[in-house]
Amino acid sequence: MDSTYLTTGQFSKLTNIPKHVLFYYDEIGLFKPEIVMPNGYRYYAHYQYYAFTVISFLKNTGMPLKDIKQYLDERSPEKLKLVFDEQVKKIDEEIHRLNVSKHFIMQTQYNIDEAAKNTANTCMIKHFDETYLIVSEKAQSPKGGQYFKDYMNFVNDNNLRFANYIGTMIDKNDIINHHYDRYSYFFTQKLNPGKGQLREKGDYLTYYHHGNFNSLKDAYDKMVAYAYENNLTLGDYFYENLLVNDITTQFVDEFVIEISIKVL
Length: 264
Description:
alpha+beta, Multidrug-efflux Transporter Regulator, Chain: A, Domain 2, Multidrug-efflux Transporter 1 Regulator Bmrr, Chain A, elongated
């Protein structure tokens, strides 16, 4: 056979595809060798390598073999461009999904570190860098009633999926007046900086509450008392952010909740 042709074994090594896969592609009519001898030996032309790379690429993007075959049977420059446009869209969606998953992992690691390195159940002044937030519509409902419905509306309206840590913003006046069961907004940090509600950089009165939600009022009382004793002027909202939750621990008494409010 002419040296410009490759045996199945040689083509298998060139493409890094097992021979049985090449046999299967031949069987279903997806990719056939250029020559099949009477004795059944298959030979591939060198130029077939380029068509095969397209098959491999489309398969790696998740395109079904039947759709790849349909394209190859009707291929043209215009149709290849349409196919690639669709694959670019799918790749972008997959990149976004992976970025969300990566953000979830990194945020979880950061939260665990923050919970471990900061003193528990103690008021402190801490500097925060600016962050951009996605913030819900304003709500004024007891946490026991409308809370979960508002929470799910926020998740669904913003397509947040599972991977976003969602916190609560609580009006300072509600805390001062001991309305601990009220909340004003839900928020989550944006995956990418840019448009969104800016949480300003600066000093924040901060408290790392170790324990369950039922004892949160003690944390807020301590923060209000600390601000009064130290003549601090506080911003409008407390930010309540769950750092250690039931993803991290099986005991609610081991939860760690970061509470912060800007010092003006």
